[in-house]
Amino acid sequence: MKKNILIVGGSSGVGKKLAEHYINEGHTVCITGRNNPGLASARFHAFGVLDQASKLGCDIDRLVEEFPAVNTLVYAAGYLQRGHIDDLDDSALQTMVNIGLLAPMMLVQRLKGKANTPLKTMLITSSSQYTPRALEPAYCAVKSGLGMFGASLVRDRGVGKVLVVAPSDINTPFWAGTDEDTSTMLDPGWVADQIVDLSSGVFKYKYAKLLRHPSRVEVIECLDNDFQRI
Ligand SMILES: NC(=O)c1ccc[n+]([C@@H]2O[C@H](COP(=O)([O-])OP(=O)(O)OC[C@H]3O[C@@H](n4cnc5c(N)ncnc54)[C@H](OP(=O)(O)O)[C@@H]3O)[C@@H](O)[C@H]2O)c1
Q1: Is any atom of ligand 1 closer than 6 Å to the C-beta of 9?
Q2: Each residue's pLDDT tens digit, 120-171
Q3: Is the CB of 130 under 6 A from ligand 1?
Q4: How far is the C-alpha of 10 from the C-alpha of 16, rounded, in Å?
Q5: To 10 degrees, what angle do helices 137-153 and 103-111 make?
Q6: How is the chain split into domains, by residue range?
Q7: Is the pLDDT of residue 96 over 90?
Q8: Residue 150 contacts by C-beta under 8 Å, 6 or more apart in sequence?
C-alpha cells in the first residue's frame, strides 16, 4: 500500500536518506527543514523551529493543512547543542524543548486519526536518550523524554506502530562546525536502512539502539498489540 510519509527533519542526514528510500518505494513523501535540499519527487515544506511555542503551533497547523492524511510520521529533526546548563540561555533551552519534545507531541496530536490507517510513528532519539552527558543537559533530557513519549503513545489504542530508534554518532551535517572526527561514525545510509528494517513487520512498539564499533543493532524492547514481549 502506498503511503503518505511525513519526515520532519528530512532535508539532511538520516531523514534525507529515509526520504530517498521511501520515494524509491513509490510513497508520497513530504520533507521538512529550514533548507530545501531539492530532492526530486519529494514535497518540501519549510519548517524552522524557534523558541516561541505559539508560533510553533501555527507552523505545525500549516504543515498539517498542507500534508494532511499522514500514514507515517518520521521525526528526525534535531541539532547538536553543547554547553553546561548555565551556558545555555532561556532561548536555547526553549528551542531545544520545542524541537525535541513539543513539536513531535503537537504533530502526533494533530495527525492521530486523520488518515485511513492508524498513525505509524518513528522517532529518532540518540544515545543521549540513555547516556547522561555533562555538556548536553537539555539535549539528553529531550531525547530521553522523546523516547518515553513514544513508549507512552503505544498505550493509546488509537495510535499505530511506534518505533523509537536511538543511534550513536552518525557522519552527517549534525557535526558541522565542530572538530569531531566523523570518519569513524555510523554511515547515514546504513542508519536509514536499519530504521527501515526495524520499522517493518508486526509489532506495536519497538525500541532499538544503533551502536558503533562494530556497527550493530540492539533491539531493547519489542511489544505486540497486547503489550506482550515479542
Ligand atoms: N549525527 C549524529 O551523530 C546523531 C546521533 C544520534 C542522534 N542524532 C539525531 O538524529 C536526528 C537526525 O540528525 P542527523 O544526524 O541526520 O543531522 P542533520 O543532517 O543535521 O539533520 C537534522 C535535520 O533536522 C533539521 N533541523 C535542525 N534544526 C532545526 C530547526 N531548528 N528547525 C527545524 N528543523 C531543524 C535539519 O533541517 P535544516 O538544516 O534544513 O533546518 C535536518 O533536516 C536528529 O534528531 C539528531 O538529534 C544524530
Answers
A1: yes
A2: 999 999 999 999 999 999 999 999 999 999 999 999 999 999 999 999 999 9
A3: no
A4: 5
A5: 20
A6: 4-223
A7: yes
A8: 121, 123, 162, 163, 164, 205, 207
Q: Which of 34, 163, 175, 185 to mutate to test the pocket of ligand 1 (most atoms within 8 A of CB)?
A: 34
Cell of residue 4, nine digits: 503518505
Query: CB of 118 closer than 6 A to ligand 1?
Result: no
Which atom of ligand 1 sits closest to the CA of residue 128? 6
Q: Does domain 4-223 have CATH number 3.30.450.40?
A: no
pLDDT in tens, 30-82: 999 999 999 999 999 999 999 999 999 999 999 999 998 999 999 999 999 99
Looking at residue 68, its pLDDT comes to 87
